[in-house]
């Protein structure tokens, strides 16, 4: 398995490296909330000696309803992320949805994320890989809910054809199983690592219940918040190289995926546990 490095930040991910924490908000709501989350998470990860990348989306393009909150958009959202990056001296992770977004996003984000639903969109994947390489960042590709772990080989092959060098982290986030449900197979982590990529676990989105939020009569995604720590701990024990977690100071009031995100004040206890599991797993 490759070990990948964000040279500017002295962060490495892969075999033998510390557990990388990609954490923050599901979507940017306002700058003050982003500042609060970044400050809190950086303090905790610094105390624990865990590499930290702040995550927040500027747009959520795959919402269940056209009326759902999507975020501040590309221009305003990237400006907010630049502010967080400068004020807190942290690398940034955010996702994108169209080819034309690749270069402006890669200019700000150190970890550029391909959403799960878009992981097989060849033109998007290649454009993002090229832009990320040019900017010196890494690509974080979420495995589609419709793919087996070994099918990620095709994603990696596309990227390697485009940029040759290995700059890809794969992310497990569950597989669609039955109706309004996702299931995570922990054996898939090792399967994806065998393809030569470090692997993270998106424990937040893996507990989603797509289109099953009773509060909106199915117009938004439900979730099982209590399952996030369970999946995160199980994945780290199974060998995951990093964790992807979303928080909110008041999850019940979050503008996107509140049922799946954790309260910000619970971050420290969970990250301490994950670090301890990583240390003893061998």
Describe this structure in words.
There is one protein chain. This protein is α/β, with parallel strands linked by helices and 282 residues long. The chain has a single domain (4-280), classed as TIM Barrel (Alpha-Beta Barrel). It has 8 helices and 15 strands. An 8-stranded parallel β-barrel has the order 3-4-5-6-7-8-11-14, surrounded by 6 helices. Strands 1-2 form a two-stranded antiparallel ribbon. Strands 9-10 form a two-stranded antiparallel sheet. Helix 4 (122-135) links the parallel strand 6 (111-114) and strand 7. It is globular, with a radius of gyration of 17 Å. The model is unreliable at 216-220 (pLDDT under 50).
Task: Name the features.
alpha/beta; TIM Barrel; two-stranded antiparallel ribbon; 15 strands
In short:
With 282 residues, this protein is an alpha/beta fold. It has helices at 31-48, 74-88, 102-106, 122-135, 152-163, 187-193, 227-237, 267-280; strands at 4-6, 11-13, 20-27, 52-57, 92-95, 111-114, 138-142, 168-172, 175-176, 182-183, 199-202, 208-209, 222-223, 242-248, 262-263. The protein has a single domain, classed as Alpha-Beta Barrel (TIM Barrel).
Produce the secondary structure layout.
Blueprint: E1 4-6, E2 11-13, E3 20-27, H1 31-48, E4 52-57, H2 74-88, E5 92-95, H3 102-106, E6 111-114, H4 122-135, E7 138-142, H5 152-163, E8 168-172, E9 175-176, E10 182-183, H6 187-193, E11 199-202, E12 208-209, E13 222-223, H7 227-237, E14 242-248, E15 262-263, H8 267-280
Parallel strand pairs: 3-4, 3-14, 4-5, 5-6, 6-7, 7-8, 8-11, 11-14, 14-15
Antiparallel strand pairs: 1-2, 9-10, 12-13
């Amino acid at each position: 398995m490759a070990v990948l490095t964000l040279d500017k930040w002295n962060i490495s991910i892969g075999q033998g490296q510390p557990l990388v924490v990609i954490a923050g908000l599901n979507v940017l709501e306002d700058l003050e909330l982003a500042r609060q989350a970044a400050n809190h998470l950086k303090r905790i990860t610094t105390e624990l000696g865990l590499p930290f990348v702040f995550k927040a989306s500027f747009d959520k393009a795959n919402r269940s309803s056209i009326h759902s909150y999507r975020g501040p958009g590309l221009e305003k959202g990237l400006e907010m992320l630049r502010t967080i990056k400068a004020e807190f001296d942290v690398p940034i992770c955010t996702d994108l949805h169209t080819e034309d977004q690749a270069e402006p996003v890669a200019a700000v984000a150190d970890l550029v994320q391909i959403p799960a639903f878009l992981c097989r969109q060849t033109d998007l994947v290649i454009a993002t890989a090229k832009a990320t390489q040019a900017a010196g960042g890494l690509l974080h590709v979420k495995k589609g809910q419709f793919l087996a772990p070994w099918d990620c080989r095709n994603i990696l092959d596309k990227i390697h054809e485009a940029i040759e060098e290995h700059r890809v982290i794969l992310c497990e986030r569950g597989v669609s199983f039955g109706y309004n449900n996702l299931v995570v197979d922990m054996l898939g982590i090792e399967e994806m690592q065998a393809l030569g990529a470090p692997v993270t676990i998106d424990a937040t989105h893996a507990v989603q219940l797509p289109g099953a939020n009773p509060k909106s009569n199915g117009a938004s995604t439900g979730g099982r918040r209590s399952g996030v720590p369970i999946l995160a701990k199980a994945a780290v024990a199974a060998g995951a190289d990093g964790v992807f977690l979303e928080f909110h100071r008041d999850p019940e009031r979050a503008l996107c995926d509140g049922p799946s995100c954790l309260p910000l004040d619970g971050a420290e206890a969970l990250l301490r546990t994950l670090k301890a599991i990583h240390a003893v797993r061998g």
